[in-house]
Design a protein that fits this description.
It contains three helices and 18 strands. By secondary structure, the protein is mostly beta strands. The strands form four sheets. The chain has an eight-stranded antiparallel β-sheet. A five-stranded antiparallel β-sheet has the order 1-7-8-9-10. It has a three-stranded antiparallel β-sheet with strand order 4-5-6, with no helix packed on it. It is globular. The relative contact order is 0.14.
């Protein structure tokens, strides 16, 4: 039986010049494709000489202490999880080593997003992952920190950023696990509203390879023009399912023919709810149908 993570609906360009300033600093490890800097916790924050990522994370975990290749600290109360129904636990001792870092825009201001594992839990597949956001000032200050772990491993997606307005970008986070023939992934689209990280929605995708067929689902996001240029843009979310033949040891089983299926939905800003809202349940129905197909004998 295939168990998809719960599907929960939630509240839900012109940035290049500012982002370029960060990119110039990150030239040795920054790529346009990934938009993410892989960094050691003891490394200096680009553009902030003498301030390390360790210094920033001590604002999240005050008793964090440096070791040779990592930093550890006692667990505090669990971080608020960005998705209702997830989270609630942290390791007895938080351990942070390598980081993923993305710079993005919120309300026209540069922000620094740090994504870090906090150590392993032995009792669950779902592992916590810290997403902490700081301002881009001379001495960056913590804005918000949440748990974004939804599966065994968590990272920024590729691409990691989606434009959602003239002066705003959303972060794309993916959690996943896999075995020899299957992979499961949950993608979260997250944006900063004022001083709080908010969830647009989560998206479940799946991939499988059988004797005669391989199937992959891919989620993508695109900014749509806003009616009011001062408001957030509409966001187009698309899941494409690609199926093709796989020439395995099939014992004369018929190899499947290539086929592709696409489902999309627009997320539109709602002033009353103060968040993005899906204008239809198309993707939710698509995910439910996909889960039923994969669970069938």
């Amino acid at each position: 039986m295939i168990a998809f993570p719960p599907k929960l609906l939630h509240r839900r360009g012109a940035l290049r010049a500012v982002c370029a300033a960060f990119a110039l600093v990150l030239v040795p490890v920054w790529t346009a494709e990934s938009q993410v800097l892989m960094a050691d916790i003891n490394a200096d924050v680009p553009g902030h000489a003498g301030i390390s990522f360790f210094d920033l994370l001590k604002q999240v975990v005050p008793d964090l202490a440096e070791n040779e290749n990592s930093a550890t600290g006692r667990s505090r109360a669990p971080f608020r999880h960005i998705v209702d129904g997830y989270g609630g636990d942290l390791p007895d001792r938080i351990a942070i080593s390598s980081l993923q870092v993305a710079t993005f825009m919120a309300a026209g201001e540069a922000r620094i997003a740090i994504l870090a594992d906090t150590g392993q839990l032995e009792t669950t597949i779902e592992q916590p992952a810290l997403l902490a956001v700081f301002d881009g000032g001379e001495s960056p200050k913590l804005i918000d920190a949440v748990d974004v772990g939804m599966d065994r491993d968590t990272s920024f997606a590729v691409p990691a950023l989606v434009n959602i307005g003239r002066s705003d970008q959303a972060l794309v986070i993916r959690s996943y696990h896999f075995n020899s023939s299957e992979s499961f992934e949950t993608t979260a689209l997250i944006f900063l509203r004022g001083r709080e990280l908010e969830l647009v929605d989560t998206f479940s995708t799946y991939a499988i390879r059988t004797c005669s067929e391989q199937m992959t689902q891919v989620v993508k996001f695109a900014e749509q023009s806003a009616v009011d240029v001062s408001a957030y843009s509409e966001i187009l979310a698309t899941i494409e399912e690609r199926r093709s033949g796989f020439q395995g040891n099939c014992n004369d089983e018929i190899v499947a023919m290539p086929i592709s299926e696409i489902a999309s939905v627009v997320y539109r800003w709602n002033d009353e709810l103060d968040n993005f809202i899906a204008v239809s349940d198309t993707l939710e129905r698509f995910e439910t149908q996909a889960a039923e197909r994969m669970s069938a004998p």
